[in-house]
TrEMBL record:
Protein name: Glycosyltransferase
Highest taxon of the lineage: Bacteria
Keywords of this entry: Glycosyltransferase, Transferase
MF annotations from Gene Ontology: glycosyltransferase activity
Broad class of enzyme this protein falls into: transferase
Domain Glycosyltransferase 2-like: 7-151
Cited CDD domains: GT_2_like_c
PANTHER family: RHAMNOSYLTRANSFERASE WBBL
Pfam families according to UniProt: Glyco_trans_1_4, Glycos_transf_2
InterPro entries hit by this protein: Glyco_trans_2-like (IPR001173), Nucleotide-diphossugar_trans (IPR029044)
Record-listed E.C. numbers: 2.4.-.-
């Protein structure tokens, strides 16, 4: 049997992609004749890592059902190691060609060296500072508190992190990072590598101190180069939990290496420092229970967490408005929650709100009401900016307690001040409407300015209509049209029928939506109703006085008022034809009405004004632009309403435009976005 030169010990915790890239870089990192083995411990991952690792036949895979902590997992791998050299390797490290061979060659050429680390580069090729001196009491104080910014401690801190040292030269390093550290087996404890009392941080610091106390020396060499992503696993914890575990490790280290009185001084100063941060609202605050546990050095191991990405949706439509109609924003939020965690944040309320309120509404989906301290935010840019920044700070605190990567999703222009404030990896701007067209003429500049900022900042711009991009300013990448959709199960042909509507004389022509002057063409419906008194018009939805005015005194027009969204299908089932009488021209004919697919899902013929976005659906929609043509189109629709085949065709079109189909489209787009951002 071939002897093993190097045992590679790697711990994986929900870093499937990083671990795959790390393993793929290993073969080119060695030279012929260098034999190595790879031992991977998976710490209860839930991101598909196990399936990926199971495909590798040349590794030893140890599966933990729970997260036992980083130190314990390394020790598990060490127990299976056969090599004379032990490589401690993080999953977010990628070797440059020949890097591992260079590390092995270094130890063989320098028998006095106990271990060696490579030169670390970030993804852009810049040197990462991963070499430090062992902590003294003063540097521990600088590390754990803001004292490092004061003149008396600043030089201590700089000395600790070896600031100004030229790492382009081979040299001894008291404490190199263990992200990629090759060690001689003979200098290690036969039973373990790390002290398991340090589950996450400072286990490598204690190891370096133990080796130094035994007279061993660690080195770094720029002849071996690796790329380091930095914090692939610990980044999943969120800033506050990561900080708590780092403080916990520092306290444990000082407890083992310093007199008791110094430990008490450190604990007191850390407590005062953190309380002061809370008082002044500094970002990254710790919850008091976590702070107290960290100061006592009793925080424990890494938690098992839901590591799915967060999609934070700052919407212009409140969640409670769902009862009046499932808006695009609500449907997409529910669709995205199938594979991600979604935090749906309402727009600022009219009344002042002092606290962040979050509740879970279904698996994977949370609804938040953010603080809103200043009135008139929609009218006053300064008030809007302050309100949004305060909301961002509170949302950050909540998200830090529920860690995971973040994607920011905006569908309201005025939420743009939050962009870049949540630590998001990317920004999606979903344009379902032109918000400035809803504003008063004197306030439209405010909305249009924020729209320009959102488009410029967005990594992905979505539009609900193929016509909308021409209304938008230039963006980094071409806008992608993701049209509105429907829920075919809710709008199925079979089901309850509203009896009061079915008793009206026919034929019955139905409309569900707002009856206003912005979109709804009341003059068109009134003219058609006057010319065809034998037709009955059933209009369901909220209405304004101006919207109702053209319909006054028309006996064949019935206004049913607002209905709960669950009751709308029953009203429309009693109708023979469904209408989309939207105004043409002006500021709103960019729309691609969601109700089109809801009508088609019911199998109903649809007559609509000739909106530009509906031209591509002309085979299933009757389009008209004048009262005369609208009447002709309705006559044709009434004829087709008696065809079962035509109804099935309309239903099939609706199925191809369901929200689940839109969800698949979004998953592809977000996957491409993630690849583009790497």
């Amino acid at each position: 049997m071939t002897s093993v030169d190097v045992s590679v010990l790697l711990v994986n915790w929900n870093t499937c992609a990083e671990t795959r890239r790390c393993l793929a870089s290993l073969p080119d990192a060695v030279t012929e004749g260098l034999h190595y083995e790879v031992i991977v411990v998976d710490n209860g991952s839930t991101d598909g890592s196990l399936d990926m690792l199971a495909a590798y036949r040349d590794i030893v895979l140890i599966r933990n059902s729970d997260n036992v902590g980083f130190a314990a997992a390394v020790n598990q791998a060490y127990a299976h190691a056969n090599g004379e050299l032990i490589l401690l390797l993080n999953s977010d490290v990628r070797f440059r060609p020949g890097a591992l061979a260079a590390l092995v060659r270094f130890l063989r050429d320098r028998p006095e060296a106990a271990g060696v680390a490579p030169l670390y580069l970030d993804s852009h090729g810049a040197v990462q500072q991963h070499y430090m001196r062992l902590p003294t009491f003063r540097s521990a104080l600088a590390l754990g508190t803001a004292l490092r910014f004061l003149p008396g401690f600043r030089h201590v801190w700089r000395a600790h992190v070896m600031e100004g040292v030229d790492f382009s030269k081979t040299q001894p390093v008291p404490q190199p990072s263990a992200s990629c550290l090759l060690l001689r087996r003979g200098v290690l404890d036969p039973e373990r590598v790390f002290d398991e009392r340090f589950p996450l941080y400072f286990n490598d610091v204690l190891l370096a101190r133990t080796l130094a106390d035994a007279g061993h020396q660690l080195w770094m060499t720029p002849q071996a180069v690796v790329t380091h992503t930095l914090g692939a696993s610990t980044g999943l914890l969120g800033e506050s939990k990561r900080t708590a575990h780092r403080l916990d490790g520092l306290i444990r280290y000082v407890r083992l290496t310093q007199p008791r009185r110094r430990l008490r001084i450190l604990q007191a100063l850390v407590l005062l420092d953190r309380l002061a941060r809370r008082m002044f609202g500094v970002r990254g605050q710790l919850r008091l229970p976590d702070l107290w546990a960290a100061i006592r050095g009793g925080l424990g191991s890494l938690p098992d967490i839901d590591r799915r990405e967060w999609v934070v949706i700052l919407s212009g439509v409140g969640w409670e408005r769902w009862s009046a109609g499932e808006h695009r924003q609500h449907a997409l939020a529910k669709t995205l929650s199938a594979g991600r965690r979604v935090l749906f944040v309402d727009p600022p309320a009219r009344r002042r709100c002092w606290r962040l309120s979050v509740r879970q509404v279904q698996p994977g989906l949370w609804h938040a009401i953010a603080p809103n301290l200043l009135p008139c935010g929609r009218l006053l840019p300064a008030a809007n900016w302050i309100n949004r920044r305060i909301a961002a700070a509170r949302l950050n605190q909540w998200l830090d307690r529920h860690p995971g990567a973040r994607l920011l999703w905006l569908d309201e222009d005025l939420s743009t001040p939050v962009a870049g404030r949540l630590g998001e990896r990317a920004l999606v701007y979903d344009v379902s409407d032109l918000d400035w067209t809803f504003a008063r003429p004197w306030n439209r500049w405010h909305h249009r300015r924020e729209m320009h900022k959102a488009v410029n900042a967005a990594d992905l711009v979505l539009t609900s209509s193929s016509v909308l991009p021409r209304w938008l300013p230039p963006s980094q990448y071409p806008p992608v049209t993701v049209p509105n959709g429907c829920d075919p199960a809710r709008f199925c042909p079979e089901g309850r029928v509203t009896e009061s509507v079915s008793k009206l004389s026919g034929p019955r022509l139905g409309y569900a939506g707002a009856i206003d002057t912005r979109c709804f063409d009341g003059e068109l419906i009134a003219e058609v109703a006057r010319r065809r008194p034998d037709w009955t018009f059933v209009l369901t939805g909220p209405s304004t006085r101006a919207g109702r005015a053209p319909l006054a005194n028309l006996g064949n027009v019935h206004l049913l008022g607002s209905k709960h969204f669950d009751d709308v299908p029953a009203v429309l089932r009693a109708c023979d034809v469904c209408l989309i009488p939207y105004r043409l021209g002006g500021l709103v004919d960019y729309v691609h009405p969601k109700k089109l697919y809801e009508y088609l899902a019911l199998g109903k013929p649809v007559v609509a004004t000739a909106l530009p976005a509906l031209a591509e659906q002309e085979d299933v929609v009757h389009l008209a632009d004048t009262p005369e043509r609208f009447i002709v189109a309705i006559d044709k629709a009434l004829t087709s309403s008696r065809s079962a085949d035509a109804a099935s065709q309309r239903r099939a079109v609706a199925m191809s435009h369901s929200w689940s189909v839109r969800g698949e489209q979004l998953r592809v787009l977000l996957g491409e976005l993630e690849g583009r951002r790497r």
